[in-house]
Amino acid sequence: MSRRRRFEPKVNHNSTFTLNITSMTDMFVLLLVFLLQSYSTSDVQINPVTGLRLPSSASQVNPTEAVKISLSQDELKIDETKIADVKNADFLPQDLEDKDTNFIKPLFQELDKLAKSSSDKAHIKEGRILLQADKELPYATLRKVMYTASMAGFPQLKLVTMVGE
């Protein structure tokens, strides 16, 4: 009986090793495309307030630097500082002016103080505001914020929205 010989592939020790990098190139191209799509070209970083549901929009305009005001169902904030309380989609009576119920006293005081202290910033000189407002709030509540901001010298107000949905 003869023994079977084991198969041994022929190895040419004189040949050079070649690397197939096609799949690696494809992987890097996909990573590059993903990173370019997720890269934000906007100078402004807007951090949405927790519990705030922004309205949706089809606009693709990038925001410019401005004073950031957020208005939720519970409170009014400038950046991270709480300015006034909101209850039942309206401001509390002690925060409103007696003779003009559209005028929010604490908001005016903060914006006026901001305008007087930071006169070297262009967005404050020009009176620009980015307003994040809950989509369930009535227009009358938003109108009070817009009215008070314009009285404090901030007439350029833009609403922050979510793209799509």
Question: What does the model show?
Answer:
- The chain is of the alpha/beta class and 165 residues long.
- It has a domain at 56-163.
- The chain contains four helices and eight strands, in the order αβββββααβαββ.
- The chain has helices at residues 22-38, 105-117, 122-125, 139-151, and strands at residues 56-57, 67-71, 75-78, 81-87, 90-91, 128-133, 156-159, 162-163.
- The protein has a six-stranded mixed sheet with strand order 5-4-3-2-6-7.
- The protein is elongated, with a radius of gyration of 29 Å.
- The mean pLDDT is 83.
Entry keywords:
19% strand; elongated; 165 residues; 28% helix; alpha/beta; 4 helices; two-stranded parallel ribbon; six-stranded mixed β-sheet
